[in-house]
Amino acid sequence: MTEASSTEAPALTPQFCFNERLLRDFLSLSRSTIDDSITQNLNALITPAREGFDPSSTAVRQIDSKTRKAIDPRNCQGFKDNVLFPSWQTRSDVLTYCAGVATSPDPDDPDLILRETESARDRERVVNERLDPYSARFFPREARTESLANLVRNQRTVEDIIRTRTWGMVTERCGGSTSWEDALNNWRHSNQR
């Protein structure tokens, strides 16, 4: 198994973050390569050819997870250290960078003048809700930094859910009792990240 290309960080620029489709696509591709196919990735760590083929293994359908073959602990650790944790770290780095972009001033906001004009017009409007109950509706445009902040917040929630699910599969197949947060932090410390 080779290291997935989804662990390679894109060029981190504000333009990358503000292109929400590109940001979502990167995160989705990275997740689908590693986390969504975790069962296949873990199955690939088993080397059944070492033991040879046992014809009796096909006589009974094996649906119980306890009958699965154990994965060599060195293969598990190699997968976690070289594929899983780098992928998670890359996604964390991207989300952290984009969160920083979202909380920074945005002097290049293309909609800034339009929002300021709409805001000035809204302050000048006279609203008589008795005559027109819909006249008070005004939906100010959201700044792209606010939109990016919402996206990052949502993607961090998705990351937490996916990592919990993935780590559950990893600990079921490879053993271990630490949380994914502790395991990732231990990996960071050992790799000086």
UniProtKB/TrEMBL annotation:
Domain of life, source organism: Eukaryota
Which Pfam families does its entry note?
MIX23
Q: Which residues form a coiled coil?
A: none
List the GO cellular component terms: mitochondrial intermembrane space
Q: Give the family per the record.
A: Belongs to the MIX23 family.
Its protein name is Caffeine-induced death protein Cid2
